[in-house]
């Protein structure tokens, strides 16, 4: 039983309500075809919640995730939310040193970690490991290792039942760590209000239904995953997990999209470009795909044109936004790409739950057609960076006509139709396969080599 403040429902309460409506429908399916119903996923995530409660996890705590994408990892993040905590996902394939820094930085109380990664993580955590519960999930031969782990009863909490925490709008839902210019990752703090405002926009714009099968290509530490996970849960759709190895293999991926009968695809343009070039898409049936969504980087028109030739029927959307806002502008592409077009498409108009400003170096509004920095205002904007007050203060401005806004660092021009065209960056950040990379972090890493004197 869960109660929440009138007029606001946190992410996990929304899921529980959907699970009650679509109890026997498939909620999540993995890339091998195994699936779990909404009802069973609700039960499994309740067990995760009870386990965490028994370990002393309370509202406002943080819990880490270093798990490969699976039904278990979805159950874990829902259970963390139900316990009132915020989940902190990392890339399980990243160096243990980096992941240990993330978990220590935000003082996680517990970590769900793959059994084969636990020893290295524990060593890197050092003294922090003594105050952190490492919950080791052994893939083994079990279909649902999380269920097997919880049923062991070794951590307690599965016999007694707790209630899900009625998180407030301002409670943290998750912290996503991005590249930092100082050489250390920085944690972007997103509240339930931030997340649900975005999910509401997604549900209104993309109309998820029980007939839909959404791709989950992005890893859970990447902000694209928020649309992947929570939008289908709004409409009783099925979330189809794309494993890490499958997601990088265009030939297998092209076939998987067809045989899995996905209706909504969301990824970076680089993945879609590989599909168009190397996926042999002409060999497969994609009549079930109704939406192709892409974000994270510029989509070269030549590759976009090639993709639309192989996959002409869906509606295409260009989604733009940094982790701090998730998607804040969008553009529905025309059915046909002009034959002579060579410039990438604009990033579109501001999403309905946001307002946007374009300012010069003195934070004064610029005229339409003049290049300036994009500033985003609204409830979807992050609360700040974890434990980095100075960096948080540096990215927020207070504009007389709009109030508090997040400075994206992106340079744009607004056209006569109100849409924005991306022109570049004002800092030293680059994008690689949709991931933000600060050049300062690369330099800081290279400086650690004893034979390197200077780096640029």
Alpha-beta classification: alpha/beta
Taking all Cα atoms into account, the compactness measure Rg is: 22 Å
Could you give the count of β-strands? Answer: 23
Indicate the percent of residues in helices. Answer: 25-40%
> Mean pLDDT, nearest integer?
91
What is the strand content? Answer: 15-25%
Shape field = globular
| Model regions low in confidence, pLDDT < 50 over at least 5 residues | 1-6
Could you explain how this protein is built, in words?
By secondary structure, this protein is an alpha/beta fold. Helix content is 31%, strand content 24%. Helix 11 links the parallel strand 12 and strand 13. The longest helix is centred in the first third of the chain and has 17 residues, at 38-54. The radius of gyration is 22 Å and the shape is globular.
What's the layout of helices and strands?
Layout: H1 11-21, E1 26-29, E2 35-37, H2 38-54, E3 62-66, H3 71-82, E4 86-89, H4 96-105, E5 110-114, H5 115-125, E6 133-137, H6 145-152, E7 172-178, E8 186-191, H7 192-206, E9 213-216, H8 224-235, E10 238-241, H9 250-259, E11 264-267, H10 269-278, E12 291-295, H11 301-310, E13 315-320, E14 329-332, E15 349-350, E16 355-359, E17 372-377, E18 384-385, H12 389-395, E19 396-399, E20 403-414, E21 420-425, E22 429-432, E23 435-438, H13 439-446
Parallel strand pairs: 1-10, 3-4, 3-5, 5-6, 9-10, 11-12, 12-13
Antiparallel strand pairs: 1-2, 7-8, 8-18, 13-14, 14-15, 16-17, 17-20, 19-20, 20-21, 22-23
């Amino acid at each position: 039983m869960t109660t929440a403040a009138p007029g606001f429902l946190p992410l996990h309460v929304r899921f529980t309500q959907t699970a009650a409506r679509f109890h026997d429908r498939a909620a999540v399916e993995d890339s091998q075809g195994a699936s779990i119903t909404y009802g069973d996923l609700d039960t499994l995530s309740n067990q995760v919640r009870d386990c965490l409660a028994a370990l002393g996890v309370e509202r406002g705590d943080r819990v880490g995730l270093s798990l490969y994408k699976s039904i278990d990892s979805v159950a874990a993040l829902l259970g963390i939310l139900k316990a009132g905590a915020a989940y902190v996902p990392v890339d399980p394939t990243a160096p243990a040193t980096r992941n240990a820094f993330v978990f220590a930085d935000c003082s996680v109380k517990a970590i769900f970690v793959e059994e084969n990664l636990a020893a290295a993580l524990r060593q890197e955590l050092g003294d922090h490991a003594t105050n952190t519960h490492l919950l080791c999930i052994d893939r083994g031969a079990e279909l649902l290792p999380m269920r097997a782990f919880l049923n062991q009863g070794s951590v307690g909490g599965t016999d007694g039942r707790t209630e899900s925490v009625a998180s407030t709008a301002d409670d943290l839902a998750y912290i996503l760590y991005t590249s930092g210019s100082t050489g250390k990752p920085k944690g972007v703090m997103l509240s339930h209000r931030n997340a649900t405002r975005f999910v509401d926009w997604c549900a209104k714009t993309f109309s998820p239904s029980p007939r839909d099968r959404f791709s989950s290509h992005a890893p859970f530490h990447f902000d694209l995953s928020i649309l992947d996970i929570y939008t289908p849960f709004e409409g009783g759709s099925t979330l189809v997990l794309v494993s890490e190895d499958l997601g990088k293999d265009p030939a297998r991926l092209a076939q998987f999209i067809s045989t899995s009968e996905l209706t909504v695809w969301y990824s970076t343009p680089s993945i879609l470009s590989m599909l168009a070039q190397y996926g042999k898409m002409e060999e497969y049936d994609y009549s079930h795909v109704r939406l192709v969504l892409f974000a994270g980087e510029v989509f070269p028109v030549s590759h976009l044109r090639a993709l639309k030739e192989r996959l002409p029927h869906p509606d295409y959307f260009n989604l733009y936004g940094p982790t701090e806002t998730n998607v804040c502008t969008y553009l529905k592409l025309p059915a046909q790409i002009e034959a002579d077009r060579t410039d990438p498409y604009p990033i579109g108009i501001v999403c309905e739950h946001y307002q946007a400003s374009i300012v010069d170096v003195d934070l004064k509004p610029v005229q339409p057609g003049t290049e300036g920095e994009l500033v985003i205002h609204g409830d979807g904007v992050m609360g700040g960076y974890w434990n980095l007050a100075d960096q948080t203060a540096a990215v927020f401005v207070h504009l007389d006509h709009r109030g508090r806004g997040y400075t994206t660092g992106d340079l744009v021009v607004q056209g006569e139709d109100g849409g924005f065209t991306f022109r570049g960056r004002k800092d030293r950040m680059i994008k690689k396969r949709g991931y933000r990379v600060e050049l300062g972090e690369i330099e800081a890493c290279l400086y650690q080599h004893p034979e390197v004197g200077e780096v640029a």
